[in-house]
Fold each of these.
Amino acid sequence: TMATKGLTMTIIDTNFELPASGDDGSVAEDADMKILSSYLEADTAAWKAQKAAIAKAVLEAAHTSGISGEALLQSDLAEGATIPSQFNPFKECNIVVRCEVPPVDVDGAAIETQLAPLRSQPMWSREAEALAKKEIELGLVVMRYKVGLHYSIEASLGAAKCGSFVARAMSALNNAPAPTSPLSVPTMPFTYMLRLCL
């Protein structure tokens, strides 16, 4: 949870999107799960930093769009609620950020060229090759983001203000100032959904 000028942002949870499988779906899914597990074990610090950077960017976008904690509370109470439950972070999320790892747009031969010398390493395995290939692919792409709001926010604040908020949030997320920013560099091997509560 983080806060700024009367607004609080809480990270609720995340859900990963594994690639669609073909005829050998169970085998492919098992391999993808092994890759994901390896990243979760090895790169948790980088992933936590990325999630925090996303939440901070969305929180700042909300503030610069004129959204305030008081406005959220007043709108909730104006609709007849007796307690400010609508935006309780322990009950539900009201913002979802799709954190997309885009497909690699490069000739497979270029990746094969980088993989070839690695195969002479001791204890090389199919799992090691899958991880190495994924690492190479991630180094060739930049994260992309989409922001979605729960209907409760738009109902309370109005389409115009929410539209400004989403536009600011997506601009901040997709136009990170440095290519090495936590927002730009993929830290996980697959696209994931980050659920937040404002």
Note: The longest helix spans residues 44-64.
Amino acid sequence: MISKLSNWLFQVHQCFAKLYDLIKYRNLALGGGLLLLFAEATGEVKTMFAGLPSTGINTTQNYIQLAGRLLVIFMFLTLFNFELSVLRLIELIIGSVLMVAVAVGYRTKLSALLLVIWLTVLNILLNDWWNVPTNRIMRDFLKYDFFQTLSVIGGLLFVVALGPGGVSWDEHKKKW
């Protein structure tokens, strides 16, 4: 009896630990979108010397954009499901390549735009809460996943609009 109870408690713990990691990564991705919004809001700092040109270097904003880009990428850690099917493998490879490209800032606007399209398609296919009857609990989980993924898509659209920032591969190539 005690071994069955301990086995059941262990399984419940493992289930909630995985769910907690999923929620933690998604919340980090949401925080990344908010950091990108904050980076846009800070903009160029005004100086007290009116009329003088600025250097255009705002390192705080560049590092905030880098942190936002990296945190938005955490969303993909929740989508990885290691099944042995061809479709899952293709999804994993495409998502990983785009995720790394956005994280390092390589062709960031294009990579983020492709990631937006990829996430939108996956979101509509995997989180179709509108097809689940209202009396099912799964509808609430799918609706939560759908809107959280939608908010990460919004963060990636900020990356498309703002560009990579100063700390990226694209910016490094401009200095060559």
Note: The mean pLDDT is 75.
Amino acid sequence: HCMDLNGAAKPGATCTCTVTRAGHKMECSTDEAVAARVLCIATYSGSPFDIVVNYCVLCCTCVALLVSLGGRRVGLGATVGVGVALGLLGWFALFQIGLCLGVGCAGVSVIWCAAVGATLRPAQRCRMPTLDLDIRHCAVTHWHSALKRGTLAASVVTSAAAFVYYLLTAEAITTVAHILAFGLGYVSERFATWVADSVT
């Protein structure tokens, strides 16, 4: 309702109306116990909609990452590839929790954004193989298979939809965090696979 200058709703009164777009600003108190703060972070400060959206995207991106690194290049077994993927996901989760404990944010979007970045690097390497090692990697992983194409497509589509949604509804800092998390995932996958190749 339109309010008059004193804040009361009066029919026919001269009043000022202000329309604001509700943003998604989810915060967790930094004064609570660590366990309570982690729960707040993981549950989007009690927002059911954000829980459903982000955990659906998280599931798609995690599966895509596990599938993409599960069939590793020659010299790395599937078990090692899965281990690399799980290690990356653990690193992304720790980064998300540490970040939110520090600044009071909530959510798991940094994890799925980073997972997308980590998944797209091997996919890009197979589209444009330049080294013999990349060619052998692509021959082993078979990105043309229905499973890997499907999981990659689901990851990209769901994460892109969520990214655009929060771009339009959340504060600008959220979008900046998503972009930086994507870069974090891309770089982390490169480093993790280099380490794995070096020790196996």
Note: DSSP finds seven helices and two strands in the chain.
